[in-house]
Design goal:
alpha+beta; 7-stranded mixed beta sheet; 21 helices; 36 strands
Length: about 775
């Protein structure tokens, strides 16, 4: 009897249908010489610390590092898992051959091998099914090409190393930081991949907070209704710009050169999972998890190929499939496919490249067309199909013209872009997110040597801060291990060192949100106070390093190809963990946090805690005595890392003594949050709470309800879209329901705007001038 193990019941049903296995038993199908059973994901995993050693059950610094030698397995404890594992064990042990049909990737391999080990059947003959589609034809073809499981030994070793490395780093780092910094029962959860991802977001948010806009001036001139830019760049001083302006005012403007060239913009490569997730985020605001779930559902409905791929090309053996596939897609995308000559499809190495196909080829539709789909699934399917169709369209041709001019010896330039043939871009009502181009600009016909009057001027602008991460931009940074990269070929090369894999990136982001280290605000991902606090606690920079985690991922991929020793990899992980513990123990006493002004380390001086870059001009200092309170080391850490003290102290202000928590604002200024007792604030109420009738009082971060401990969520944050909300504004909003039009708000792109803040059902909404709609903040 041949026993087939799938990763989930739905795949077992698909294989049973393809192989004409009709009889349904308790936990498996049977027929035609096969028994087809299934797991529910990870039925078997690594043991917990106390399963190895009871001394490891108690969280203690003295027990660290915890490194099992060797690792051992345990079954998942829920009833359904125990029952199904018993079925699998019985079938495996009674089999003549075992066929692995779990997902064809690293985690699918691990699920199978762990179960094979648990059932004590590693000695049994075993082969592997490797398919990229769940259609009956693909399944039957896959069963004709089964490979001995030993072929995939490298994949298993990489999966095992990944699992054990995450266990070692995560377990030891979490216990270390929770024991040292988890006052009040706080659990600080760290991970080999999730912590560097969190560090990327925290660093970006700090850059935005600490960004100081600078004025700059540009010299432009207008000739024949066309704007020309000074080629020497921006000016940091207006006087320099004005001086140059005065020198050219009286001279005519003369065209010195006209150069035109054609540019070809090729269609984007096909989707891998990360590129699909980025595109769906940009187009529709889908989270990475929502896109993955929709793609997985389409795969299980046999509508698209395997989605958890990091390849954007197809194998050369797939060329004969393209014409019939496009003919089938024409039933749903008639107009798009009509633009192709199906008898003369161009199938070059850019799209069909065996060297750039890893475990699975790019995501494409199957020959099965969908019926009625849920909205998310329909949008994902259409995007996948349109990307394939576009791949066979000609490139977009553009005429790019550069015109150089001169006035008084000062050089100017302008550029115009005209689309000659839209090519593949004609398929999209909006530009492809990965291929957005500058605004089309038509130029008059300029002739070298012509001249005439012009209107020079100096314009003023301000530098803008970096943009906060969106789900799409964070996925891009994870894919390239923290490196910003716009070049498609270089980005493909960097995939070898990405943070996580296409299959895990969505889960990493959701884990950080679930643990309250990140928060999602529409398309934007921002670090929370807890997330920033955690990153500030970590002394070992390597634990936060995207580059190091990327190097680990690169080595795991080499292990898959049998090009790196797994024992060497695990030895490096153990050495890293020991070094992490030593580093944290060594510098704990001197680490207070990061400077709120410049982000560098704060060190202790005789009279206060100041920035380590004071010689370079940073003026931040937290005095050791604030409002009559002696600020000790632990209080300094709380202020620098959590922006307020955990406890209240006797504060002395203007001949009055009262209980208050000390606070620190983003500008590095000390303040206090007045308390009557440890649990009852007595700051003067701004107004009654519109949700529960409690009192709205000022806190360090906003204006919130005094009944928050009872569950009231009413809050008006002190900063909205980079604008400070004063107590007077908050009071007006609470008492009148709106503030009236306020100026000084700034978008994520750095643009100023004005809105009227309104309070609707306890939520602050922005009403833009001239619009009846509003959005929640």
């Amino acid at each position: 009897m041949k026993v087939i193990l799938t990763e989930k019941p739905s795949v077992a049903r698909d294989i049973a249908q393809a192989l004409a296995v009709r009889s349904r038993k308790d936990g498996y199908f049977e027929g035609n010489g096969y028994q087809i059973t299934w797991a529910f994901g990870h039925l078997v995993g690594l043991k917990e610390p106390d399963d190895y050693n009871q001394a490891w059950k108690r969280w203690s610094l003295q027990t660290l590092p915890i490194i099992p030698e060797p690792f051992a397995l345990k079954a998942r404890g829920d009833d359904s898992a125990i029952k199904q594992l018993a079925v699998i064990t019985r079938l495996f042990q009674g089999s003549d051959e075992i066929i692995c049909a779990t997902d064809a990737g690293r985690e699918g391999e691990l699920i199978f091998r762990y179960i094979l080990t648990w059932t004590d059947c590693v000695h049994k003959p075993a082969r592997r099914l490797w398919i990229s589609s769940l259609t009956d034809e693909a399944i039957r073809q896959g069963f004709q090409q089964l490979q001995d499981c030993r072929v995939y030994e490298g994949l298993y070793r990489a999966a095992k190393c990944r699992s054990e490395a995450d266990w070692i780093v995560g377990m030891n780092a979490t216990r270390l930081y929770t024991l040292k910094f988890g006052q009040g029962g706080t659990l600080w959860t760290l991970g080999r991949v999730q912590t560097p991802v969190l560090a990327l977001v925290v660093q970006r948010d700090r850059e935005i907070v600490h960004f100081i806009p600078k004025d700059f001036w540009e010299l432009i001139t207008v000739y024949r209704e066309t704007r020309f830019q000074y080629t020497g760049g921006r000016f940091e001083r207006s006087d320099d710009a004005e001086a140059l302006l005065n020198r050219i005012k009286t001279d005519d403007f003369r065209i010195t050169g006209v150069k035109g060239k054609q540019e070809q913009i090729w269609p984007p490569l096909l989707y891998d999972l990360t590129d699909l997730q980025k595109d769906m985020s940009l187009r529709y605001g889908f989270t990475a998890e929502k896109t993955l779930n929709a793609a997985q559902a389409l795969y299980e409905k046999k509508l698209i190929t395997y989605p958890r791929t990091d390849s954007r090309c197809l194998g050369s053996d797939m060329k004969p499939l393209m014409k019939p596939l496009l003919e089938r897609l024409a039933r749903r995308f008639a107009e798009a496919v009509a633009g192709l000559d199906l008898e003369r499809l161009v199938m070059g190495d850019r799209l069909f490249n065996d060297d750039k196909v890893s475990d699975h080829h790019a995501i494409i539709p199957t020959m099965t067309l969908p019926g009625l789909l849920a909205d998310e699934e329909a949008k994902v399917f259409d995007a996948v199909a349109q990307r394939l169709i576009a791949a066979f369209y000609p490139p977009c041709l553009k005429e790019v013209t550069s015109v150089h001019g001169q006035a008084g010896g000062t050089e100017f330039k302008t550029t115009g872009t005209v689309v000659i043939d839209p090519g593949w871009q004609a398929l999209f009502k909006i530009p492809e997110p990965a291929s957005e181009d500058k605004e089309q600009k038509h130029l008059p016909r300029f002739v070298p040597g012509e001249s005439g009057p012009h209107q020079p001027a100096v314009t003023q602008g301000k530098t803008t801060p970096p943009k906060p991460f969106t789900e799409a931009s964070l996925l891009g940074m994870m894919e390239s291990a923290g490196k910003t990269c716009d070049d498609e070929e270089l980005r493909e090369a960097l995939k070898e060192k990405g943070l996580g894999t296409p299959a895990t990136r969505a889960a990493i982001i959701e884990t950080l949100i679930r643990r309250n280290y990140l928060q999602r605000q529409k398309k934007t991902l921002l670090s929370t106070e807890a997330g920033r606090h955690l990153i500030s606690l970590i002394a070992d920079e390597r634990l936060k390093s995207a580059a190091m985690t990327g190097e680990w991922e690169s080595k795991l991929k080499k292990i898959e190809r049998n090009a790196y020793d797994p024992d060497q990899f695990m030895a490096e992980i153990v050495a890293f963990t020991r070094k992490m513990l030593e580093t944290q123990h060594r510098i704990d006493d001197s680490r207070f946090g990061d400077c709120p002004l410049c982000g560098h380390a704060v060190i202790e001086g005789r009279q206060g805690y100041g920035c380590s870059r004071w010689k370079e001009g940073c003026r931040f200092v937290l005095w050791k005595q604030v409002f009559g309170v002696e600020v000790n080391h632990e209080m300094a850490r709380q202020l620098l890392q959590n922006f307020q003290t955990d406890s209240a102290y006797s504060v002395h202000v203007d001949d009055e003594i009262f209980q208050a928590r000390l606070t620190l604002n983003p500008q590095g200024q000390a303040g206090y949050l007045r308390y009557q007792s440890q649990s009852s604030p007595v700051t003067a109420a701004l107004a009654d709470c519109p949700l529960c009738g409690g009192k709205i009082v000022e806190t360090a971060k906003g204006y919130s309800c005094s009944e928050w401990r009872s569950g009231c969520k009413m809050v008006i944050w002190k900063t909205l879209a980079h604008k400070e909300i004063t107590p007077a504004m908050a009071k007006k909003l609470l008492t009148h329901g709106e503030t009236g039009v306020l100026t000084g708000f700034k978008s994520g792109q750095g643009k100023d705007f004005s809105v009227n803040l309104k309070l609707v059902n306890g939520q602050v909404r922005m009403e833009f001038a001239g619009r009846s709609g509003s959005r929640t903040k």
